[in-house]
Write the C-alpha cells for this entry.
Amino acid sequence: MSASLETLQSPLPPFAAFGWAGRWLAGMIALVEYISALVLAVDVAVVFASVICRYFLQQPLDWAEEVARALMVTQVFLGAAGMVGRRGHAGIDAARGLFPARWRPYLVQLSAWIIAAIAAAIFASSIDLLIETEGQTTPFGMPGWIFIYPVMAGGLIMSILAIAVALTGPARTAWITLGAGIALVLAVWGWNEVMPAAALSPFALLSSAFLGSLAIGVPIAFALALSALLYFLADPSLPMSIYSQQLMAGSDHFVLLAVPFFVLAGLAMEANGMSARLIELLLRLMGRLRGGTNLIIIVATAFFSGISGSKLADIAAVGGIIMPAVRKTGQDPNEAAGLLASSAIMAETIPPCVNMIIFGFVANVSIGGLFIAGLVPAAVLAAGLAAVAVIYGKRIDPSEALTTHTPLLRLIGGALVALVMVALIGRGVTSGVATSTEISAFAVVYALAVGGLAFRELTLRSLMRLFVRSASMASGILFIVAAASSFSFALTIEQIPRYLSDGLTAFGEANGARAYLLAAAALMIGFGSVLEGAPALIIWGPLLTPIAQRLGIHPLQFGTVMVISMGLGLFSPPVGLGLYATCAITGTETTKVARPMMKYLAVLIVGLALLIFAPELSLWLPGRFGLR
C-alpha cells in the first residue's frame, strides 16, 4: 500500500543525487504543498464568510460558490502534484506479489513512467481545453480559465515531478522500463493500424489498462486516469480536451468541499490535543473493565468518525494514541489492529463520513438523510463488535498505559469541547438549515478557534503543518474522485451502465428486492476490496440506486448498505486497501492481523445481513426527523 494511506506525509524520494536540481525539486514540492494548504485556508474563509453573510446579514455573496469551487480545483490538482513528488498516491503494492521477485523493481519503475505519461497528457489536454473555451465565462461572469489554469498548472508540475521520481530509480531499470513502455504503446498502435479488422477496441484498451495497471501497483487514481486516457486516444471522435474537462468536472462540485473541510476539522482536533485528551479520559474511565482497551477503540473510532469524516484520519488519530498503550500493557497489537480496522467499517455510516457524502452526491440522495440513516446501523454494528471485544478482551491497569496524568476536570472539559463540536454537526444535519459543506466550514472554524483557545497547543508552525497535511490527504481523496469521473464517462459512452442496468433489473424483478440488495452488497464488497471507496461508489452508485428504487428499496437504506459493504471490502483481507493502511499506521503485519480479525468480520457480515432484511434499522431515525 502506498504511503498516502497513512495520514503522515511520505518522505521525499532521493532527489539529493540530482545535486542543485534535487534541491530545486524538493523546494518545488514544498512550495506546491504550501500553496495548496493556503488555497484550502482561503476556501474555508470564503465559505464561512458566505454563510455568515447569507444567514446573519441577509446579504448573500453570489460569487462565493464559484470562487470556492475554483479554489477546490486548484487545491486538488496542486495537492495531487505534490503527492506525486512524494510518491504518496494510494495503490495496491501487494498486487506486485503476484509476479516473481526479480520483476518487482521493474514494475515499480514502470508505474512511475505511467504516472509521468498521464500527467503529461493532463497538461496537454488542458491546453486544448483552454484554447477551445477561450472567451467563455461562468454564470456569474467570471472567466472560465479560473477552473482550467489550475488543471494545467497541476498537470505541468505533476509531469516534472513524476519524471524526476522515475529518474530516481536505478538508471538501467529506468531506461529499460521506459523503453518497454514505449515499445508496448507502439505495438498496440501498430497492431491497430496494420490490422484494422482485428483492432483492439477502445473498451478493450480501457478494461485491460485498468486491470493491468492495478496489478502492477499503479496508484488507483492513475489506473483510472490511464484507462480513460487510452479510451479517448483510441476513439478519434472524442477530442482530447474532453479528457481534462472530465477530470476537472469530477472535482468541481460545491458539495465535495465538505470532504477537505471535515478532514481538516478532524485533524485539527488531533493537532490541538482534543483527541489525546478524549482517549486518555476513556482509558481512565474504561481501562479496568474487561476488554476495556477494545471498547475504547470502538468508542473512539465512532467519535472521531463523527468529526473527521475520513476513515484514514480516524485510524491515525485512534491508532497513534491507543497502540502504544496496547503494547505497554502487554496486549496483542495484531488483535487491536484487527479491531481498529473492523471499527472503521462500523463507523462508515457515522456522519460526516466522506463516502456517505460522495454516495449522496453521485446517486442524488439526500446527504442529510444519509447521515441520519447511518446512525442506528452503526450502533448495531458497534454493539456486536463490543460484545465480541469484551469476550476476547482482558483487564488492564490504566496507569501502565498512560505516560501523562492530566487532571480529571481538564480531561472532562476537553471532552465537552469536542462533544459540542459533534452536537454542532449533528444539529446542522438534522435541522436542514445549512448544507453539509456549510456545516463543515463551521466545524473547521470551531475546531481551530475554540479548540485552539481552550487547549493552546496550536502554534503557527503546527497550524501550517495541519493545513499542509489536510490539503494533501483531501487532494488524494478528491483526485481519485476526479479520475473516477473520467473513467465513468468512458463507461457511459460505451453504454455499460445501460447493459448492466437491464441485467440487474431483470435479476431484481425475478428474485425480489432482498436478493437484489444481497447482490449489490456482494458487488460492493468485491469492488471495495480493489478500489478505494470513492471510485467504487462513483461507478456503481448512480447505476444501482435507480434500480433499487424501482424495486421498492428506499434510497436511504440502499445507501447505508452500499457504504457499509464497500467498507467491508476496503478493510478486509487479503487485498483490502484500508487494512494495509491500518497495518502501516499501527506497525503490524497484514498476515498476522487477518486471523484475529476474522471474528470481528463475521459479526459485521451478520450485522450487514440484518440491515438488508430489516430496513427499519436504516429508516426509523430519518422518519423521526422528517427526512425519510
Remarks:
- The radius of gyration is 24 Å.
